Amino acid sequence: MKRILTAILAAIAAASISFGLQAQDKVTSRVLEIGRSDNRTMQHADHLSNVIGGRIVGSAALTEAEAWVKEQFESWGLEVLVQEAGAINVGFNRGPWFGRMLSEDGMFLHFGTPSYTAGTRGAQKGHVLIEPRSRRELERMKSALKGAWVLLDAESNGMAIDRSAKAEEKRAAVIARNEEIDRQNMERMRWNWEHRDSTAKEPLPYEKVTAPFYKEMVEAGVLGFIRSTKVPLQLMYDRAGCFDLTMETLPKVCDICLDEAQFATIRKKAERRERFELEFDIRNHFYRGPVPYHNIIGIMRGSKYPKQYVMAGGHLDSYDCGTGAVDDGNGVSVTMEAARLLAAAGARPKRTILFCIWTGEEFGLLGSRHFVESGTVPLESISNYINRDGGPLMATGVSVPAAMYDDYVKVCKPLMDYNREVPFSVEKRQGPAGPRSSRAGGSDHAYFAMNGVPTISFTETDPKGYNFDYREIWHTESDIYNKLIPEYMEHSAVVTAVVLYGLAGLDHLLSRDGLYSN
Known about the structure:
By secondary structure, the chain is α/β, with parallel strands linked by helices. The chain is built from 13 helices and 14 strands. Strands 1, 2, 3, 4, 5, 6, 7, 8, 9, 10 and 11 form an 11-stranded mixed β-sheet that branches. Strands 13-12-14 form a 3-stranded mixed β-sheet.
């Protein structure tokens, strides 16, 4: 009797496992089918890029994007966690901008401004001066500074001119050293005049710092500062000052990053002391905060292991000189479509799947850091986090430690023949594991990896040769919708959905053996 009962129980267990596998296979097959026939990845990308646009922290656009993502997740039947990760004192919205050179050889200007910097007061015209390099030069041109656009001898790196107290201390120290250099140069000039038959002594170069007389020039009434910038223009934000900003301490003058070729032309005209003007109309707007920013996390609750997690994500915030299509509308759109595909396929995963749309990545991984450090979920209960934040490339494979290899081969089997032109591959990592990083950096996987969580993401390639170059768009005006590669992103959404569901369906968490050396 005991043997019969054991046999019956074994048969029931086997039937249950078989039914579970059939159900999982059915969901996966449905995901693959919908992924081919009704893939909406690019609809998400279009809305983010072309309806909402650039989404800087503290902007109305980011707030709108958060609400839209939440609404989409809810419409697909997901639970949603709206997690406040922080707030900024003052909000910033960017309007249109326009500029031109007013002269016989006038031209329209190609330029931009970092976020959280001043706009103009309507259209403002002014003459052009080259910044003073010494206090002697500053005194000589002090009256001429009022109403001028000032060319700085410092190429822009995309960040705003640092207006902080620390920066002013640095400027003061450089000014002091340059005053000594200026004194020595005056002596050399006198020597050269007195010894005209001798080889002339070359002037000593001044030590460089961005806008050494920044404060004095602002007080003198300049309209703004102009720096040379490589094309495509890289335009970021006021890293040093935006979080300390108040409505009483808003920047007063413009911070313009101008196409390097046009800058060179204008500088030559200024050196020749030609009479011409520049006109700018820059509509940068501030509004009273605090303005909170949020992680938007779609939750597909696990049926068997609801307190164990498989995660994927990208960041919703972006710089606003472009439309944030690639960095990281690409990652957000792929993650959202993976969620929609699984919901449409009727997925009921064993583990909870979290679709993480992070905030504040560009300002220092603010959203993902908050998730980790606030203990939103126990880190030891996360099987894997898949991050997508890079080019709009195709997820064509995955490289994993030996202890994960068999699980990934099983999970990825449905993908092997999904795209016969580009077979999906699972590779076993060779060589010893490296140490966990002790510093955050890169993207939203960082704080997870620092705490020992697996962050195995896909190998992303350009198999059809679309010649995408991430450096071309990174934090620049070129980060726009037409830089996306639809077939790669649509494929990646399917891959993400299948792998998330497969990992959630394993009867164990992924092994962390060999993941890190410490």
